[in-house]
Design brief:
By secondary structure, the protein is mainly alpha-helical. It is built from 2 helices and no strands. The N and C termini lie far apart (77 Å).
Length: 74
């Protein structure tokens, strides 16, 4: 009652193939494979050039430090 046997998995695979069709399943498999390859390539490219990463620019100065623009007049 715990895990599924090989026959359960074969029946499930056959039902999925009948519902979706083998061509659609092949296209989904190719898309997933391409996405994994792209992810791996992106991870390798990111590790190769850490010196090219740019730091965030400093926040814009709104003049709050000198009190000229944000003074409240009552």
């Amino acid at each position: 009652m715990g895990s599924f046997s090989i026959w359960h998995w074969l029946v499930l695979l056959a039902i999925i193939a009948l519902v979706f069709g083998t061509k659609k399943l092949r296209n989904v498999g190719e898309d997933v494979g391409a996405a994994i390859k792209g992810f791996k390539k992106g991870m390798q490219d990111g590790e190769a050039d850490p010196a090219q990463l740019k730091a965030d620019p400093p926040p814009a100065n709104t003049g709050a430090a000198n009190g000229s623009k944000n003074e409240r007049v009552d």
